[in-house]
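Before we proceed, please read the two lines closing this message. Report back on whether the structure tokens fit the sequence:
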Amino acid sequence: MKKLNQITVNIPTLNEEENIGKCIDSIKKSGIKKIIVIDGGSQDRTIEILKEKKVKIIQTKKKGLGYQRSIGVKKTKTKYVSLIDADMRAKKNSFLVMLKDLEKSQYAGIEPKIKSSNKNLNYFDKSYQAIMEININKKGPRRMIGTPTLWKTKILKKNNFRPFFSASSDDTDVSYRTYKKGYIFGGSSAIIYHVHRSSFLQYVKKYLWYGKGDAQFVISHPERFLSILKHQLYNYPIKFSLISLTNFNFFPIPFMFMSGILRFIGMLTEFCNKFLGRKDKIFST
């Protein structure tokens, strides 16, 4: 469809040989032709697979998500830009629905619903998906959006990602700065599938990484410290748990407590690392 030619999809990668091929295939099947992959120094078969898929590849230094995404946005020339991670899969109509939802709104960017692509969900996958249903998968206006998203390129270029954010809060930062300028965001009825991490240790790593991003956000925006603390120690263990209780979903409550505490620990760890002047460790996307 010609309308989809207005969209460029940006994908940051770092050692994503297990995911990137299927991610690109799903995006192409949805009708998207313009794809930019910004690789941050992969040592596996990621680059080889990208060359086979015949997409535009930008190879950068290993500096993290904010750095990679900022380059992708700068190189985008279309009216809209979509931010997707390698472990995400598009449905056939995902981008078309997002585009329609964005065009008929006043939003600067829009966030689709995130669903698990795993057929057999274990406890951790189900619990993570429960958080998505509470916190992400809703229509209507919101102050911040994460990944995946569809943005109006002109607005995102003016408020681009910052290289300081090597962890998960790169999108929180760009949303916050854009929102302060008077823009708002929204939720879309489109669906993007996510290949969830399926083990306890993988989820521990994930939420510690989220905590690292929280620390970077607080360092950059100290006025938001109490808000981040509230998200970690109130939203996850209390607010989300109460919502689950009202829906008679008891199983994710221990996971919600664990997630909030891990984000808090990850934030404190990053504060200590910054204070001690330790070198930033860049993890796979």
Observations:
- The first helix runs from residue 20 to 29.
